[in-house]
Amino acid sequence: MLNRFFALSRTTHGILDIAMPGFAALLWLGEFPSWPVLFLSLLTAFAGYTAIYALNDLVAIKTDREKFAGGSINEGYSVEASAMRYPLAQNILTPRQGWLWFGFWYVIALLGAYLLNPVIVFIVLAAAILEVIYCRLLKVTYWRTLVSGLVKSAGPVSAVFVVKPNPSLPLLLLMLVWLMLWEIGGQNIPADWNDVEEDKRVGAKTIPLTFGPKGAGLIVVITLVLTTLVSLFLPLISPEPLGIPYLLISGLAGVYLLILPGLQLYRTRESRQAGRLFDHASYYPLAQLTIMALFVLF
Question: What is the tally of structural domains in the chain?
């Protein structure tokens, strides 16, 4: 039974996403936080991602049913592959069950946010509002991809306020730009690319549908190259001197997980390659967290 709820929240993908707040915290603090703070932060992050991913399907349930009325639902990418994707649209879960699941985890996220830093409560509230706006803009404009970037940035920005109650605004904006570029080029556009046929049925306005495979592929390559380049400036945030070895390893992670699969998508323009890029980009936060953890430890 729980598998249905985990499918609603795309839990496998959500767990990978939690690596990004972990990276942000290590980057800004330069060391591991205390165990109580670490435990509460992990619980709050898990609750937040679980709730927001569920909210996406709850708000978009009517559109999702329209999208998949003409065919079966694809099982998705390896990081979130499941025959129970969109369980609300498939009537595997009822809307009431979905809202109860969302409410449970969202309350935990709000409580955890308050205990860590009351400022984070406003970020958690904003993330939910922005997620609703993002879903409502599906048939309105492809610029909704920017809203997606802001939603995905909510977790890492919250992590900053856990370890730095008064962070530098310019440095915070630097990290925000990096996060949004990664989300747009590595997650949002590839996901929409995979759903092109379904989105056509409902008159969606997405980047792949608006600009076509060639234009969307070019946007993907540009955003992912910029993601990797901006990542080279992130050491400015850290109180620790990370040095050239860090820049080389971090840059190589961007080349392997983002730029190379992005270029392959641009060349082939195949939906299968969009899924491959999505998968690779989903491991980018974990790669950055691992690199940073090793430098902090050693």
Answer: 1
Question: CA–CA separation, 197 vs 67, rounded Å?
Answer: 9
Splitting the chain (298 residues) into consecutive groups of 10 residues, what average pLDDT does each group show? Answer: 86 93 96 95 97 95 80 61 75 92 97 98 98 95 96 97 96 98 96 88 92 96 98 95 94 98 95 93 97 93
In the prediction, which pLDDT does 152 show? Answer: 96
CATH number at residue 256: 1.10.357.140
- Report angle CA 197, 206, 122 to the nearest 5 degrees: 125
Q: 112-127 burial, b if ≥16 CB within 10 A, otherwise e?
A: bbebbbeebbebbeeb
Cα–Cα distance, 46 to 15 (Å, whole number): 7
Q: Which domain does 267 fall in, by range?
A: 2-297
Kindly give the interhelix angle for 144-163 and 19-29, rounded to the nearest 10 degrees.
50
210: Cβ contacts below 8 Å, ≥ 6 apart: 142
Label residue 256 exposed, middle or buried (CB < 10 Å: 0-12, 13-18, 19+). Answer: middle
